[in-house]
Amino acid sequence: LELQVPDQPVVALHGNDVTLNCSFSQAGSFNLSDVSVFWHLTDTKRSVHGFWMERDQVIEQAEGYTNRTSLFPAELIMGNASLLLQRAVVADEGSYTCFVRVQEYNSAALLLLVAAPYSKPEVTLEPESNLRPGDELALTCVAYGGYPKANVIWQDGSGRNLTDNITTSVVANEQGLFTMTSVLTVVLEPNSSFNCRLINPLLSEERSIFVTVTGW
Fold first, then answer.
1. Cβ-proximal residues to 77 (8 Å cutoff; 6+ apart), any chain
2. What is the gyration radius of the CA atoms in the chain, in angstroms?
3. 188 in the Ramachandran plot: left (φ > 0), alpha (ψ -120 to 50) or beta?
4. For residues 162 and 156, what is the distance between their CA atoms, to the nearest angstrom?
5. What 3-state DSSP class applies to 139?
6. Is the Cβ–Cβ distance between 138 and 154 less than 8 Å?
7. How many Cα atoms are found within 13 Å in the side-chain-facing hemisphere of 99?
8. Which parts of the sequence belong to the Ig-like domain (predicted)?
9. Of the candidates 89, 87, 93, which has an alpha carbon nearest to the alpha carbon of residue 110?
10. At a CB cut-off of 8 Å and minimum separation 6, what does 100 contact?
11. What is the C-alpha separation between 187 and 173, in angstroms, rounded?
12. Is 104 helix (H, G, I), strand (E, B) or coil?
């Protein structure tokens, strides 16, 4: 029995459905009653979904997957043992093993990653007013609801990186999504421009905000 699963990690958008592809080829003909499929978490062996005796078997399904998993039963006879996982969340990340038995058996594992886009960043200043050239200024850039951790880059108006003076922190909410806060400390010049950029490594997606601060 030959199994095929993706070599590269499968990326699911948070809150969206994702299909974990697993296909098998079996020499000779077989009936649906011959097919058993088990999906489990590779590390803990906890059950995610089971199918045998021509029906879903979810009695031992791990907590958190209830009413969120299904196979494609009409396509099992054609060798499709893929798992549909609904409403993906950060906690779903990890390695999943697809186990198929048709007379003979085999298994293969794939990696699921979850991604969520960040909100457009917002920038606040401290102090907010009475700014003069030569004053020390703290700019705080905040973006919400993203995953995984973004790469935060601060640049000046001419595109030079200002990474030496940055403090970045990450806080997770109940869903595991991140709020990223990055503070840049600079000495103000008469007209200073700053660009806060957040790059989500999984989505190759960038969010940025450009601010100009005028000192009197």
1. 30, 31, 32, 35
2. 25
3. beta
4. 7
5. strand
6. no
7. 15
8. 1-109, 121-214
9. 93
10. 1, 3, 22, 24, 35, 36, 37, 38, 81, 106, 107
11. 33
12. strand
Ordered per-residue pLDDT tens for the chain, 216 residues: 999 999 999 999 999 999 999 999 987 888 999 999 999 999 999 999 999 999 999 999 999 999 999 999 999 999 999 999 999 999 999 999 999 999 899 999 999 999 999 999 999 999 888 888 888 999 999 999 999 999 999 999 999 999 788 999 999 999 999 999 999 999 988 888 999 999 999 999 999 999 998 866
Is 197 in a helix, a strand, or coil? strand
- Tokens representing 192? 């200073």
Look up residue 58 and give its two tokens.
Answer: 């979810």
Q: Residue 6 carries which DSSP code? A: -
* Paired tokens of 129: 């007013």
Q: Tokens representing 91?
A: 């906690």
| Pair 90, 175: CB distance under 8 Å | yes
Query: Are the C-beta atoms of 110 and 95 separated by less than 8 Å?
Result: yes
User: 3-class DSSP state for residue 33?
Assistant: helix
Give pTM, 2 decimals.
Answer: 0.90
Which of 165, 18, 178, 158 has the alpha carbon at shortest distance from 94? 18
The pairing of strands 178-187 and 166-172 is antiparallel
Question: Burial level of 216, CB count in 10 A (0-12/13-18/19+)?
Answer: exposed
Q: How many residues would you count in the chain? A: 216
State the CB neighbour count (10 A cutoff) for residue 8.
8
